Amino acid sequence: MSEHSPRHTAVVGCLVRNAANQVLLIKHCKRGWEIPQGRVEEGENLIEALRREVLEEAGVEIEPGALAAVWSMLSPPAALIFTFLGRHLSGELSCSDDSVDAGWFSEEQALDQVTGEVMHDRLRVLLDYRDTTVYRAYTTRPYQVQLETSLAPR
């Protein structure tokens, strides 16, 4: 890796709710149940990436909302994960190359479905969002939060 190569991958994720206040989860072929998420492509802004990822993984259009949490994965491969809240606008759930299933769940069901430690913690933070963006830096193997702070205006 050259001295000027990017050191982090940019990722977006979204906690999508429908009119019944259910949470959208997709079942990733390797990681299991999680919120829709994926890498931001070169030249793409975060909101475009968010809409594209949810459409690709779950088959639905969303209205992006608040930036609820920013995660900094410090373990290689390093990533910055921007997680938003969103509202379902249209479309029926469908799968893709990255997802083998998709569904709407109550908050409790969603927490039961998401078994990966990092994803479960991410889901819990998003479900607990209260108008203040959370920042967490963490390492994996084992999962350990190194820093947590609020990004609320002072």
Automatic annotation (TrEMBL):
Residues 6-127 form the Nudix hydrolase domain. Keywords: Hydrolase, Magnesium. The keyword Hydrolase applies. Pfam families: NUDIX. One of its GO terms (molecular function) is hydrolase activity. The keyword Hydrolase applies. Its cofactor is Mg(2+). Belongs to the Nudix hydrolase family. This is Nudix hydrolase domain-containing protein.
